[in-house]
# Entry
Amino acid sequence: MKTITPCRDAWKGTMTDRERFNNQMHYKSIDRCFNMEFGWWSENFELWDIFKDNNIKSNEDGDIFFNFDKIHQVGLNNFMLPGFEHKVVEETETSKIVMNGDGLLAEVPKDGHDTIPHYIKATICTPDDWKKVKEERFIVGDPRRIPNNLEELKKIHSDDRDYPLGVSCGSLMGRIRDMLTFEGIAFAIYDYPEMLEDMVETCCQIIEANLDAVLPHFNFDFASGWEDICYKSGPIVTLDFFTNVVVPRYKRIGKKLKEHNIDFWYTDCDGDVRPLIPGFLEAGINCLFPYEVNSCIFAGDLLDEYGKDLRIMGGVDKLEMIKGKDAIKAYLERLAPYVERGGYIPFCDHRCPPDVKEEDYIYYLDLKEEMFGM
# Structure
């Protein structure tokens, strides 16, 4: 097993990471801010000397290396199982055409640098396509969806642990968007609304069955989700479809969570999420993560608007971080009142890009500790 020596001392504190996280997300008193980041682009591990010199090659390695507060999740397979075989279909001098795990033909750069793939064709285009894939790959209650080492995990994540533990609530629309493509889901709402609703219902049933299998065995602190269905101009699905089809299913999931005393639920949705927030809150999703600023608004503005009904994790503008130390300091000072108020944990508003200079990132971590540590 790889041994990683932290390059920094952990922030000092008088509470456990679990106590701190729960209190901060419930607007209760804390010793200091919960210290976490969402990670880095893959290029950072190749370009930053601090990563290269210390053999840090992944976000998981980086979390240990920078000695962030601990936070863990129990992952569940809440979507397609099995996925499609990942294979290369064609190659050119600069790109590869691949079939990915969602059944999409995609063009990707041959050098492997991070970018959004160019999707060419989806396996699922019509209700007949969906019927076949559903029967083969979306079986509700498939035991393979649950970790096969559940008993071991129960011992590892015991009730007396000192870190917060979450449960994955998957996705009702985001992964469907992955499977159909942006264009595909936009057309399906109008061309095949019954098919799309059946996809949402199937995902909901899978999540419900998975939660039934694990919720009785753990004392979870939070729930998480992934719902990437917005871009800078707003949602890619109609608000009517979201309100009438998706939100009622969220409510079913939220009911199960509340029955097991889970009242903090975040979802990862990039873009301008503002039109979706009322539906999220109605269903029990009460935190935005990792909250991209430039496709929405300053995090503090939303926290002012919704008060203690809403929480946010993230929201430190990466474009300001790119500008250097003065901009970083000014931005963190704007966020300071919201950290003090509670319900907000600041970190880079998505994976930190390599455009942020290594020395400026270290300055950012130092300044966060100075401002939000003990």
